[in-house]
Amino acid sequence: MAVMPAPAPAPAPTVLLPSTPAVAQEVRRDDGIGTPSGQRVRLYVWEVPVRLTHWLTFFSIVVLSVTGGYIASPFLLPPGGAVMSTVFAIHMGAAFVFLASGILRTYWLFAGNRFSSWRAFVPTNRRHLAEIIEQAKWYAFLRKDLPRVVGHNALASGTYLVVFFLFLVQTLTGFALASVHGNAIESALFGWVPLVTGGIQGMRLIHHLIMWVIIGFAIHHVYSAVLVDHWEKTGVMSSIFGGYKFITRRDVQAARDGGMDLGDIER
Amino acid sequence: MQTAARGLEALLVERGVSRRAFLKFTGSMAAALSLPRSFGPRIAEALATAPRVPVVWLEGQDCAGNTESFLRASHPTVSELVLGILSVDYHETIMAPAGAAAEKSLSDTITAHPNGYIAVVEGAIPTAENGIFCTVAGSTFESIVHEVTTNALVTIAVGSCAFDGGLPRAHGGPTGAVGVKDVVPNAKVINLPGCPMNVQNLTATIVHYLTFGQFPATDTLGRPLFAYGQLIHDQCERRAHFDSGEYVLAWGDEGHRQGWCLYRMGCKGPETFSNCPTARFNDATSWPVKSGHGCVGCAMPDFWDQMSPFYRRLPSVPGAPSSVTPDEIGLGFVGAVGALTALHAGASYVRARRRSPEGASESETSSPSDLREPPAPGGPPPLSRTDLPAQGGDGNDLGSGRDGTHGQGA
What we know:
Chain A is mainly alpha-helical. Chain A has one domain (48-245): Transmembrane di-heme cytochromes, Chain C (Fumarate Reductase Cytochrome B subunit, Up-down Bundle). Helices cover 61% and strands 4% of the residues of chain A. Chain A is built from ten helices and two strands; from the N terminus they run αβααααααααβα. Chain A has a two-stranded antiparallel sheet. Chain B is of the alpha/beta class. A five-stranded parallel β-sheet of chain B has the order 2-1-3-7-9. Classes of the chains: A mainly alpha, B alpha/beta. At the A-B interface, helix 1, helix 3, helix 4, helix 8 and helix 10 of A face helix 17 and helix 18 of B.
């Protein structure tokens, strides 16, 4: 099994300074297979709470978008029975799943490994900040290769920060919309929201528009994950199911969030 | 003015109001105030001995719609109200005196009953240009409101204009119109918003005072909770149709004739707090939804701006033309993301092809490039992933990790 990296400073790169021609030749001779540096290692990147909350968020967003779209403008389902109140109940149920998932993920920002820590999202150093631009350059075809990273790339994690904020706004406006029906706890917690959003209707508009933004994000998210998976070949797509990525030792050492001791990590 | 020492009941009997009608009224007041039925007799007892309360009714930037509502009071009828429960000493629309005599009624009342009269304010108060947009007898309405509310027992702002500026303030408005509470923030103000307010709520507010010696509990916006504590949606007689997904889709369609829910016609019942469905208007005959028209949210703050468009579910997106719906904007956004994604995917396909010009599979033939060796004589293909080290000491070479440190701690 993979071993979680100790927070110790990276070992000195015993292998191959890339800018040294002599060393580089040695690398080329080794052809990347079987040498310590070119060998791919299986790294445990996404812990269970990260993957769990990812999929809880995914499924609850699907349910919330469909039911929320119905609540905003009923479609497909024929009238009769208790169709709207049922859809509304499902929407509220999914909202609580979404909320629980958000709380767990927020906790894991402080309890998780370096790839799920808040530090992976908030640029706390110059290199992280600059990498956002480098990553954007790659997307804009201005740079030929991706910056090396093990966890989230800097641009993606920056995007997730924005998305987390949208999730927060969506949660606040959603529960504030529910609170107008008079639940005392919800009113106490969320009664202030319409004062900020310019009334209940402003709150409803924000809640509705953010749904569209999140749908747009979902398209981009799946696309860029497939794209990066295709480019890096580190198993990005499968990592959100299994938690593992497959990265060469050299890339792990070179990555912004790498630099860990890979001595006893299996191939 | 006439400070009747006699109880109200005697006055009402004098006016031909039967005991039975009086008890019906006190019962309906108990219901309006969400009190148990047992409070009916208690209200009757209190009113029987209650002195008449002097009332002055001011009108500013208004349409007299709340006066109209007041004149349509039943249980008791307006004459009973005017002559019995309330001593309306000054009301520009319905009083007999005019000119200086009328103004004398006002000043007499407020000097004779310091902290003993009820000030009712109808209409917005213009504040721009020192308030000259509304003057009465040479004084600005703003100064009159100041003067009258200062020594009032309570000030009741009736209608949405007196509540927060209402229609004169809609979309900004040129006169700097505001509500009563904005002009006299320290005064004891009870707001009865609505366009118009429901006179039953006015009567019940006063009856509450006469019975209990205090005014009913209000929310943070100064609205009595008995009248503004619940959503219209949650009290609506068409709510069952909402829950069943039975909606009016066009004016006059089958659903409309069946009295189905007006949700999809832009009804603002789900965002409006008022007791319209239970109190109703015009002798409790009807209210907008019962007559087949959606609620427009007139009792809510800033309703003209916040509740527009009245016939659509959601407001317009700020900055966008009002003819464009939020869903059109949202769909446009998602479509643009999809189109950009498709474009990017095409370009990325080309890039991936150029990355391995031999057309070989990207697996093992490209693995040496993972090592990112620099170009060397007889080196790798020019388009392989060897560009990073080639940049040498370029500070942008984020991938090289020259210092061997990692950017973040665990």
